[in-house]
Amino acid sequence: VCSTWIGSGVVSDLNDLRRVHNLLVSSLDKVQAGKGSSSQLYRESATTMEKLAVLKAWAEVYVVAMNIKKEAESKPKRAVKNTDDDDDDDSTIDELPPDSLITLVQPELPILSRLWLAALKDYALLTLPAEFASQLPPDGGAFYTPETIDTARLHYRNSWAPILHAVALWLNSTGFTCSESAEAAAISALQKRSIPVNLSQASGATPSAKSLAEINKDRMHLILGVSIQFLCSPRPEEPVEHVTACLQALHTLLDSPYARIHIAEDQLIGVELLSVLHRLLLTWNPPSVQLLVTGVVQQIVRAAQDYLQEKRNTLNEDDMEKESCPVLGEGGDSGGLIPGKSLVFATMELLMFILVRHMPHLSTKMSDSPSHIATKTRLSEESARLVAAAVTILSDLPSLCSPAEDSVPVPDEVSMLTAIALFLWSAGSEIIGVQSLQNGCIYRFKNALNSCDPWVQAKCYQLLLSVFQHSNRALSTPYIHSLAPLVVEKLKAVERNRPGSSAELLAVQEGIKVLETLVALGEEQNRVQLLALLVPTLISYLLDENSFASASTASKDLHEFALQNLMHIGPLYPHAFKTVMGAAPELKVRLETAVRASQASKAKVATRQPAPAVHSAPTIKLKTSFF
Hints:
Blueprint: H1 2-7, H2 14-31, H3 44-74, H4 83-88, H5 100-105, H6 109-126, H7 149-174, H8 180-187, H9 212-232, H10 240-253, H11 257-265, H12 267-283, H13 287-314, H14 317-321, H15 343-358, H16 364-367, H17 381-396, H18 403-406, H19 413-426, H20 429-432, H21 435-449, H22 454-468, H23 473-492, H24 502-521, H25 527-540, H26 545-550, H27 553-572, H28 574-583, H29 585-608
Helix pairs in contact: 2-3, 3-6, 3-7, 6-7, 6-9, 7-10, 9-10, 10-13, 11-13, 12-13, 12-15, 13-15, 13-17, 15-17, 17-19, 17-21, 19-21, 19-22, 21-23, 22-24, 23-24, 24-25, 24-27, 25-28
């Protein structure tokens, strides 16, 4: 009741808050009394339930206190007002200082943290499969006895999630710098209130001093183990609050530099966690859960990025020039990603699942399914946020790959570009205008335009065309300004490196369509400048009569494609076309030569065709009609 009242946000009087806080402190004293205390009035099962309820309440209060503190730190500080202004300002009468709650909780954290960790350890042991029952302490845990183990499981199951979140917040706030000896010193003053239970060792175990590194490693294994075990297969009747608390705990934990290094050094931990999160998405549909999952995924990817960048920074220039220098990043020398071991692959697998769930037409299996009904519906706000988060994380993955892997188009590259285009078409203005998201999307399009795979280039041009044609100029204009110069540059380079295959020809043709669309979208007063980019590019694709005969099929097809487009553009924009041609006589000569050669070729083909045969009427007519 106390924690619910504090977390409700209705607290307005500091004295009331202190009175409720005193109730929580007195309850905490009972928790420290330990098993078998002379003050015990209830049976062991009820005592376990009471103590875990107290620890859960303190955990919820601590989470609320840390959230209030975080919100206060993120807000701009108010200007100091004089006394007269404060008396007249009624809005501040019922508002507590933002640090009032955390100030009351802070003195109890040394003992609370040890109690929370002990409860989590109990919960971890109680959730072990039956074949590991031998690992359970013979004398029970910190808050249960062997005789009440079955009923204790239910009480722990109802209390562990807020406690896990609180422990993650505490470890993040202390930076994993608090050792057990430091906690013991801080607890010494609190122990005068009651006789504390021994939480550091199991019953009958010999005390042993551990280093801070060993203690932190044990804590990480405990939190990750509890989280992964739960997220593997949460029961259908599990409250969604437990799922969200577990995901929030993981997100908070990975805010700590120590936790980031721990999970990045052992990549298989990150891969396993991503696999578990992917499995969670298969059974839990609430968008709030999916958003929290993407947040944890982003933390894992950033941890890997920071760790890889640190390793790259340690290599000096001499090391980079050596042939024996290790290739950093996933893929190594071969550029291959191994499923089950690759963090990049596991991340792409999870994120593509999110994209396909909210955009089924990205998957041919989904779109071809009889149960799928193709509809052009706008994404909801939550779906748009999810797609935006997924695309943002996908744009970070190339930084985790080795140069060999980064130079090879990943299998999902075109699917990712398609997802970006569909997201831009369906997302709201408040989302598509986010600068970091916009930069990430533009970066992916630039990479695809510079791809060595002509098929990827062709698909990129097609998707860019849909973005450039968007009716919302606030969306299309930044992409046109950023990507149109690169499109023009790539198309102009074709004159020196003509297509040698049908795939390369298709890429050029799709690029020209994009440039023609930009001309059509431009205002009339800018038409000449736009045609001055398109027309010379098309004319550069024309072959003279001597080189045409020896050119490849793809090169000849490009010549015909360019000529047909020029013949179409002239009548479409007559004034602007004449202006461009008049400013460059050499272009006019080259175009006229190509037109005359084309006409001569057509006339020559026409003369070679035999005259149509004239069928004379039969001299003998049948007397019987068969029709």
